[in-house]
Specification:
By secondary structure, the chain is α+β, with helices and mostly antiparallel strands. It has one domain. The chain has 1 helix and 3 strands; from the N terminus they run αβββ. Strands 2-1-3 form a 3-stranded antiparallel beta sheet, with no helix packed on it. The longest helix has 8 residues. It is flat, with a radius of gyration of 12 Å. 6% of the residues are buried.
Length: 50
């Protein structure tokens, strides 16, 4: 991803809320902002623009 592999590993461990798109800590069960329980892991790869 970027120049700093340690930072990239830490960033990719976060979870994203499917409702409000907030970033949550690793291992979170529910969103810290809205309380929604459906979270997805952050994408590991950067998508290329078309």
């Amino acid at each position: 991803m970027g120049k700093f592999p340690i930072a990239d590993a830490e960033i990719s461990r976060t979870y994203i809320c499917k409702r409000c798109k907030a970033r949550n800590r690793a291992g979170a069960e529910m969103c810290r902002k809205c309380g929604y329980t459906s979270l997805r892991p952050k994408r590991k790869e950067v998508r290329a623009k078309k």
